[in-house]
Amino acid sequence: MSDQALFEAILLELAVVRNRMDYLNDAVLIGGQVLAIEQMAAGAPAVFQVETDTGQRIQRPFSMEPDLLVDPPSIEESALWDQLPVTLRECGFRRTGRAFKWAKALAGGVMELDLFIPVGHKDPVTQMTPVEDGQRILDRAREVVVPVQGRELRIKLPHPADFLRMKLDNFDRTDAMRQEQHKAKDALDIYGYIHLKTPALIAAALRDPRDESILGRLREHFGSERSPGVQRVLKLLPGYSPDDGAMVAKHVVRTVSAVFKERM
Predict the structure, then answer these.
(1) In angstroms, rounded to a whole number, what is the distance separating the alpha carbons of residues 169 and 171?
(2) What's the distance, CA 103 to chain centroid?
(3) pTM here?
(4) For 14-70, what is each residue's pLDDT tens digit?
(5) How far apart are CA 208 and CA 161, in angstroms?
(6) DSSP states along 207-254
(7) 116 - beta bridge partners?
């Protein structure tokens, strides 16, 4: 099975899980799959690729692990909370060695589903990774519908400011869970997301005073060709010549810097 076929099979499974969870919990897709779904929602193929104005092509490999930020039910509906692990098992998922991760064997590989929860919620029915500002992410998310092999995936995606904040937060993590290779993918996701959504839309999305700090963090990580975020993008392009790498670095800086110019 090709990577694209496995990716589509995973999206079909995700559609089933979301349909089953609808009456239980709201949920938002976070992580690397957001770029592919954003692109599909715009009518483009799922393969995410950036082409620079000098002809270099940077392709983002498929992300095979959906990350779901789950909205816990109210106290009055707490009985529904107990149904979440039951629903996952009925959909064919089983716990893995890491308590927040569930997995299901598919014909062409394994689908792993990571569960997240807003910080501050106690006693989740199954272990989940807490997310800072998780409630705001849930409140500002928007729903999209994308076709997958003749069916529909209905899923919520984060507000641009929240997506960028989560990716930038990953840069600051020092735990073994976020190794340098993952931070390189985070850097590529930030660059690719701004390119996909356009600097003008990103600039408009960051006008909320609560999101002002994101601009400074983007400048810190992508303000020059030697900035850490730019260098992390280049680490994912080992086959590029020094000249091609320099062209990519310039394009990354121009793309992100255009957000600042839109704010002037």
Answers:
(1) 5
(2) 18
(3) 0.93
(4) 999 998 887 667 899 999 999 999 999 998 888 888 889 899 999 888 888 999 999
(5) 9
(6) -SGGGHHHHHHHHHHHSSTTSHHHHHHHHT-TTS-HHHHHHHHHHHHH
(7) 69, 129
